[in-house]
Design goal:
The protein has 263 residues and is mostly helical. The chain has helices at 4-8, 11-29, 31-69, 74-88, 92-115, 130-155, 159-167, 172-202, 214-225, 228-262.
């Protein structure tokens, strides 16, 4: 009978590392793999840029929505619920296209209408970069999911501690900063990390707008050299390297936080 230690050994990670090492070896020795990797390398920056900016903005918007959802004002609560339910009910691909080709042109029209009396030159729709349309779409999409994560974390804080902080004379912002959010953060860290990894993968959807990320460059490269097997092997390898590395890093961070709590 296997021991608990043997059962917990990450053989799946060993297998993935072996496959990854083989593919990276092919990149090193194979001219085709090397050319594909060199072409896709420029898309890594775009993917990381879109993910980081979109995720930070989604976290800020999601936190505001969560606080609105827990507000004592019914208007704010209803607005937050309306936003979350609408956005969560629309596929990210549809939302991406809607933001890029409906909301963005409408924003340009509104901008020109507001700035025309001030003498500004009219803005054209093509002046709105596609990469920022993609970032805004991912921000809108993930803010709804993150809002629910923040809301659950904030509600998990013991009300007794909030009342104790209030008794000590802390105002609302001080209670949130020093008592509520630090405790809620420990609860929401795992799902926040999972959503960040998910956004790395979902950032590949921006390729439908022609944004030169890893997926888009992979499609262009494969269409040019007809080496679909090698090209998409490298595309998958890059995404797996990023997502698995992030997942392992987040697990280590969670373990450290748990160890600190137990001390």
């Amino acid at each position: 009978m296997k021991s608990e230690k043997d059962q917990d050994f990450p053989w799946w990670l060993v297998a993935l590392c072996a496959i990854g090492a083989f593919l990276y070896y092919q990149v090193w020795v194979s001219e085709i793999y090397s050319q594909v990797m060199a072409t896709l390398a420029t898309g890594i920056y775009v993917t990381v840029y879109v993910t980081l900016i979109g995720y930070v903005m989604a976290c800020l918007l999601g936190l505001l929505l969560a606080m609105a959802g827990l507000s004592r004002y019914q208007v704010l609560r209803q607005f937050a619920r309306f936003y979350v339910e609408i956005v969560r009910g629309v596929p990210i691909m549809v939302l991406l296209l809607y933001v890029a080709f409906v909301i963005s042109p409408a924003f340009v029209v509104a901008w020109n209408w507001l700035t025309h009396p001030l003498g500004f030159d009219p803005m054209k729709t093509r002046d709105f970069p596609l990469i920022w349309r993609a970032i805004i779409a991912l921000t809108v999409a993930y803010s709804a999911f993150l809002a629910e994560i923040f809301r659950a974390g904030l509600q998990a804080v013991d009300k007794g501690q909030i009342e104790a902080a209030q008794a000590l004379g802390l105002n609302g912002w001080q209670r949130f900063r020093h008592v509520v959010f630090p405790q809620a953060f420990r609860t929401i860290l795992p799902p926040l990390g999972n959503d960040f990894v998910a956004m790395v993968k979902d950032s590949s959807l921006v390729s439908v707008l022609g944004v030169a990320d890893i997926t888009q460059l992979g499609k262009v490269t494969a269409a040019g050299n007809f080496r679909y097997f090698e090209t998409y092997n490298v595309v998958a390898l890059i995404y797996l390297t990023m997502t698995i590395s992030l997942s392992l890093l987040l697990r280590r961070l969670e373990a450290r936080l748990k160890a600190r709590q137990e001390r």
